């Protein structure tokens, strides 16, 4: 296992040193990385990210029933926790992760899941205003073009709907910042951009920030909620 972490982290470091010369290179790197992680992702990261996922899903479950788009649904680990009143569509770049998500839907009889599709979150093939809520959990610090993803989340969400994000953002200081530094090798194995500037996803005229809070037992993650205007 240590060799696996080191191997994947080394590949991501190589890509970072080249300053990501093309979107396609980044997309392939993400796809290859998560193909390798798929069989063990839940066992390794299920607990680590659980508090952030549950905070986002709990917020969504308080909203009126509607159509929900989860970008970066991965293995579908969050799907059983959504209210059955919602109708969920999940997308992910990794076919291997989605295969596990489909097995989870079948075994859990999750009939509130409408579909699971391979898709690029920065180039969604969905109609404008087709969802009541869009959510991206631990996605924005991984994707090669977070501004494109934010634009797509806003585009497919109806006016008055919500765009919900949760992740660890490296603007945190003090002991949270120190912990982020210690987790950097693990983050690199997932392709997280530890130098991510949260300002890259704020300040859009079509999204109004209505909530920003630390979540999880130690407040290590940040939940952001936007209203689509």
Automatic annotation (TrEMBL):
GO terms for molecular function: methyltransferase activity. GO terms for biological process: methylation. The keyword Methyltransferase applies. The keyword Nucleotidyltransferase does not apply. Residues 69-164 form the Methyltransferase type domain. Keywords: Methyltransferase, Transferase. Gene3D superfamilies: Vaccinia Virus protein VP39. Its EC number is 2.1.1.-. Pfam families: Methyltransf_11. PANTHER family: METHYLTRANSFERASE, METHYLTRANSFERASE DOMAIN-CONTAINING PROTEIN. This is Class I SAM-dependent methyltransferase. It comes from Kaistia terrae.
């Amino acid at each position: 296992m240590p060799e696996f972490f080191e191997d994947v982290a080394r590949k991501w470091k190589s890509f970072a040193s080249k300053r990501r010369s093309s979107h396609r290179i980044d997309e392939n790197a993400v796809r290859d990385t998560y193909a390798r992680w798929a069989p063990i992702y839940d066992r390794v990261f299920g607990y680590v990210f659980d508090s952030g996922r549950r905070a986002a899903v709990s917020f969504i479950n308080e909203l009126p029933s509607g159509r929900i788009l989860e970008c970066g649904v991965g293995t579908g680990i969050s799907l059983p926790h959504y209210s059955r009143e919602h109708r969920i569509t999940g997308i992910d770049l990794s076919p291997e992760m989605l295969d596990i998500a489909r097995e989870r839907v079948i075994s859990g009889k999750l009939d509130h899941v409408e579909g699971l599709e391979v898709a690029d979150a920065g180039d969604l093939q969905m109609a404008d205003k087709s969802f009541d809520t869009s959510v991206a959990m631990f996605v924005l610090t991984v994707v090669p073009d977070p501004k494109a993803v934010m634009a797509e989340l806003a585009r497919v969400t109806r006016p008055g709907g919500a765009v919900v994000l949760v992740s660890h953002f490296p603007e945190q200081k003090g002991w949270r910042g120190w912990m982020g530094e210690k987790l950097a090798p693990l983050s690199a194995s997932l392709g997280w951009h530890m130098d991510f500037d949260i300002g890259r996803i704020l300040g859009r005229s079509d999204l109004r920030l209505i909530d920003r809070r630390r979540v999880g037992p130690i407040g290590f993650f940040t939940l952001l909620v936007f209203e689509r205007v």
